[in-house]
Design brief:
The protein is of the alpha+beta class and about 210 residues long. Helices cover about 35% and strands about 30% of the residues. The chain has helices at about 1-20, 25-75; strands spanning about 80-85, 110, 115-120, 125-130, 140-145, 150, 155-165, 175-185, 200-205. A hairpin with a 6-residue loop joins strand 4 (about 125-130) and strand 5 (about 140-145).
């Protein structure tokens, strides 16, 4: 009787062990789990990276739109046009350029870095584009007392290039100011390693409502 029980027990153990996983099967399962985990990780990382890149571009556009809107609003509503300058010292108020003879090609507009205007309240504002006295350089607004304020959040965006132009059909016409600059993500501002953000360009023109004096 005992021998019969031992025989049955041995048979049961043999059946149980025969239904277990072999080493090859375990390795195959582990490989599949590793592959699935890798795919899920790549998907999650790509999603987070895409979100970070979108937030970065949004921040760049918000900075650029704010700077350009402040400049356009102030220049358009200025009471007096005090001139353009390349060095911040010598300003010109006459932006009209004589029309060259027909065979002569039209020369490109002069590029400036400073524009000075006076508001209806008598406050003077100078826009500096770019202002290299800041680190990193930025687009700045300076009041009559010499106090300068950056129009960009330089902790999140970096100024790539910036220039101002001035065109005027005649001395009796109000000048038209061209504003062109480019921004990009400030290096190190993103928490995730994303691809290098392309430069975002901003460009507009604004005509003074009041005649130059």
């Amino acid at each position: 009787m005992q021998n019969l029980k031992k025989t049955k027990r041995h048979r049961l153990n043999a059946i149980l062990f025969s239904r277990g996983f072999t080493l090859i099967e375990l390795l195959v399962v582990m490989t599949l789990l590793l592959a699935v985990g890798t795919i899920i990780g790549v998907i999650l990382f790509s999603s987070l990276r895409g979100t970070s890149k979108t937030n970065t571009i949004t921040a760049v556009r918000q900075n650029g739109n704010y700077a350009i809107s402040q400049m356009v609003k102030t220049i358009r509503n200025a009471n007096r046009f005090d001139g353009m300058s390349t060095d911040g010292i010598n300003y010109i108020t006459n932006c009209s350029v004589p029309t060259p003879p027909v065979p002569t090609p039209t020369s490109p507009p002069v590029v400036y870095n400073f524009i000075k205007i006076t508001s209806v309240d008598g406050f003077q504002t100078t826009f500096i584009c770019p202002d290299t006295s800041f680190s990193p350089s930025t687009i700045a607004a300076k009041n009559g007392g010499g106090v300068k304020v950056s129009l960009l959040d330089t902790t999140t965006v970096s100024l790539v290039s910036c220039l101002l132009t001035c065109t005027q059909a005649s001395l009796s016409d109000a000048p038209t100011i061209g504003i062109t600059f480019a921004l990009k993500e400030q290096s190190g501002s993103s928490s995730l390693p994303v691809e290098k953000t392309a430069n975002v360009s901003f460009q507009t023109s604004v005509t003074l409502r009041n005649q130059p004096r």
